[in-house]
Specification:
This protein is α/β, with parallel strands linked by helices. It folds into six domains: about 60 residues, no CATH class; about 60 residues; about 60 residues; about 160 residues, 3-Layer(aba) Sandwich (Rossmann fold); about 190 residues, no CATH class; about 60 residues. It has 20 helices and 33 strands. The strands form seven sheets. Strands 14-15-13-16-17-12-18 form a seven-stranded parallel β-sheet, with helices on both faces. Strands 21, 22, 23, 24, 25 and 26 form a six-stranded antiparallel β-sheet that branches. A five-stranded mixed β-sheet has the order 3-4-1-2-5, with no helix packed on it. A hairpin with a 6-residue loop joins β24 and β25. α1 packs across α13 and α6 runs antiparallel to α7. The two termini are about 45 Å apart. About 35% of the residues are buried. The structure holds zinc ion (2 copies). One zinc ion binds next to loops.
Amino acid sequence: MNLRVALPSGRTIKVKANFPYKDSPIGYRVLFSGKTAIVVGLADRGQEASLEFPDTRPFTTEKHIKALIDTANYYGLIPWHLLYKLLPSVFDWKLEEYISLSEKPIAFLDKRSLEILSWVKARGKVKEENIKKRFGNEPVKYLLELGFLTKKREWKSPKLVEKFYRLCVPLEEALQRLKRLKNKEEASKLVYFLLERRYASLEELKEQGFSSTQIRALLKKGIISQAEEVIPYTNPNLAKLRQEKKPLFRPLGSKSVLMGSWQGIKERLFEEFMSYIDRGESLFVFCDQGELLRILYEEMYAVFGDRLVLLSSFQREKDFVKNWFRVYEEKGLVVLGSRIALLSPIKDLRLVVVLGDRASRLQDGTDLRHFLFELSRYYGANFCIASPLPPLSLCLRESWHREVFMPSAEVVVIKRKPEEVLTDTALKLLKESTKEESLILVNKVGYAYAYCKACGYIVECPRCGSFLTLSKDKSIVFCTSCGYKGLASCPECGRELQELGFGIDKAVEEVEKLIGLRENVTFQTKPELGKTYDNVLVLHADNILSVPWYDSAEEYFSYMWKALSISKKRLIVQTVLDHNPLLEFLRAKDWEGFCKEELERRKEENLPPYTRLIRLEVRKEPDLSGLPVEVSKRRVGDLKELLIKVDTKNFASVLKFLRSWRLVSKNIDIYT
Ligand SMILES: [Zn+2]
Ligand SMILES: [Zn+2]
């Protein structure tokens, strides 16, 4: 049989192979010349090659491969690069070379050599570069030649990250403990990151620029903890809690949107899932937000029991692989997974649900929702986006079926004096609601902004241009987006800086001072889906509107709308702005009015979704003169920021051109 096989390099080759199973070879994994390859098609001819098929079931399906090709074409990417980005590392086996002790008895060696051998012995096997880095080339070469050390090749399946970090004390306690720490600002950045994300793997933390030393310091202080297996397997008897089904709605179609209150969305979905299970059909729920996924898993396990299959990076490898192939064997499953699950070979997939409140993009700008939509088309499955406020482009589109679960909480908008943190209304509510759960939101990390009275401006980060944050003792400033840190003096006149506005630290301090900290009051910088609260109080989020970006009105409205979608009784919004029409829409719960107005403006100014916008930072500008684009430029530090407007038709080809330009930094932001 001649096969077309995709390699990690992005190329495909045609090979002749003995395929050992009865079904189609497309989608199977192949071990080929030291790497993991995937069969992506059949070929007319092929060269002889030695191939091994490590699985007895296909790794993914032909439909997934087709959807992948479509998505890659849309974003001007090479499809097989995308394939390898979505390949879970547990399946990405590589043949690796190790050095270990040979059988030769150790005798008559110098002290250094003995030291090397005992080092290797303690580790079993080591990589050549590691041992050479430690002991130098020559002594290692010498021991290899003498035959005390030997090289061997082994297939290595990289271990999935199993260490996860999370805050293990309340925020205020964490901040208290930080006080005694060196590098306090950096450490508090880590605390806020974990507060926002709820938990993160070591890999993620390093990606964000946090060092191992920092992580260790926080572990030692008992501020964060490490977990290996986060998801508890709940009692299977809970599955009996399944409710009687009552079909109230028409079934979801191939293009549907569920929006509004989080509780409403969830109940509606669970009911829908039940009818699929009863018909023996499978569905895939994609959720790219770690903590939300964990909460959902617990809630869904109680309803769907063993029909629920989890595919996420916080499982043990063994369970992950078992579940991966289970979805190919069985029907009538609810498959819940993060991006690591995207290629799983689900049998008889009838519904794809994208759950959550933010776009799921890869670093190269690919929106994974695009892939999932294509996938649903190849399966002929229904497709649903479930989010309090879906992307603007879908909110009003007529060809999409929409169900809105109107949030029932009352919305109260209060004018706040610029120097106030808590208005009387907010304070009174907090004082009185001793039995209710409250969430306090302040859209700013840290203590306050840094302001120079003499020059009259808020100090910006010299590296990335965001507003800097002033430390509580006013001695230093730091940047919460790029990690810059410096002394708190004005870059223009050198005078001392003052605090302006407030961040979450100051809000915590104020609440503590006025009413004390209580367990039923939670502080966050952004509303998160998952938990719901009796009261949600937005103390300060006006700063979203001061971001000079085309979608800041949408950001602001969606921040508020999301806060509303997780409040049960009241949403209190404090603002210093006198007349804010966005809050009028919120007060009237008129999401439609907001969307209409915002879309109209975007259309007039030719902004997404009416055009595509590409943002990138370059050292040297590419020559774009021959391309059908509109470009605007701006200096950012020593880089140049390019904003490129391009219509839908030329989008892929322009992206392809930009990606081929060597000096473009890796991150391309895409707005569609
Ligand atoms: Zn100044
Ligand atoms: Zn910065």
